[in-house]
Amino acid sequence: MPIPLHTASTAIFLRGLTNLAALLEKAEAHAAAQGLAPETLVRARLAPDMRDLAGQVQLASDAAKAGAGRLAGVERPSFPDVETSFAELHERIRKTIDYVQGIDPAATEAGAERAISLTAGGRDYHFTGATYLTQFALPNFFFHVTTAYDILRAQGVALGKLDYLGSF
Questions:
Q1: CA angle 37, 43, 46 (to 5 degrees)
Q2: Where are the alpha helices (DSSP H) in the chain?
Q3: What's the pTM value of the predicted model, to 2 decimals?
Q4: Domain spans of the chain, in order of start
Q5: Is the Cβ–Cβ distance between 76 and 69 less than 8 Å?
Q6: CB atoms within 10 A of CB 60
Q7: What is the DSSP letter of 115?
Q8: Fewer beta carbons within 10 angstroms: which end of the chain, N or C?
Q9: How do residues 105-120 score in pLDDT, each as one tens digit?
């Protein structure tokens, strides 16, 4: 039996965003315990040419909004990338979760064969909804959630695989 598109998209975006929020909570606790300015972690990056933690959270949010919205064929909200604190990053995640939760599952299911086109990295891509989800939306989302996790690990935050996976 095939997995419903709504389950394969919305549920995964919501789980990843919830887990990302929990990673940020651990990072905040780490900063407090170590006497670090929280902004040190928010601005941390893995490499000079990569986005910092705030940028990774922003891009994970954008990927979830775009993935869920394109599949359902609905308008996506635009959030300016202005977050500089953990509180602001948590608020962005909360707003993204609210948006994704508000999408009608039937609209998502109707998007399996919807034509989806986008431009990324100067290239044009054309997908059906199902291939967009599996070949672009989910990999893009997980890249940014994983990179946020990796930034925090590199900064000494005590995180493990189960923190990334979240509760079951």
A1: 120
A2: 5-34, 38-42, 53-72, 86-101, 105-109, 129-132, 138-154, 161-165
A3: 0.96
A4: 5-165
A5: yes
A6: 26
A7: E
A8: N
A9: 999 999 999 999 999 8
